[in-house]
Amino acid sequence: MKTLQLLILIMLTTATAYAELPSATDAAVKQALSSGKPTVIDLGARACIPCKKMAPILEGLSTEYKGKAGVLFIDVWENEAAAKKFRIQMIPTQIFFNAQGKEVKRHTGFMEKSDILKELKTAGLR
Length: 126
Known about the structure:
By secondary structure, this protein is α+β, with helices and mostly antiparallel strands. The protein is built from 5 helices and 4 strands, in the order H-H-E-H-E-H-E-E-H. It has a 4-stranded mixed sheet, sandwiched between helices. The longest helix has 16 residues, at 49-64. Mean pLDDT is 89; it is low at 11-18.
């Protein structure tokens, strides 16, 4: 019986594993915003449930649109200065920037991949 319980626990742990972007540094944010490409920065926390749900979406977008758009994550519990800089009141918060590095949209809460793509396209993704 214990073997079965252990097997189920391993399967559940594996099934709920998710991708994670590293928490972006100030230098990475500055580089993305001056890259001439639209950027989304997701400000959240690794322990936040909606943030965990967004992690694989952001990871996928980062890979899929590498060189075309910036997709960054900042853990505001690890980087409180970023939370203050970006005036974060609730997490997750996604901030979209156009190719000139100007904020063009802000969203609070979980965001589907299609909605993120729509906003990146509005910000200039081609």
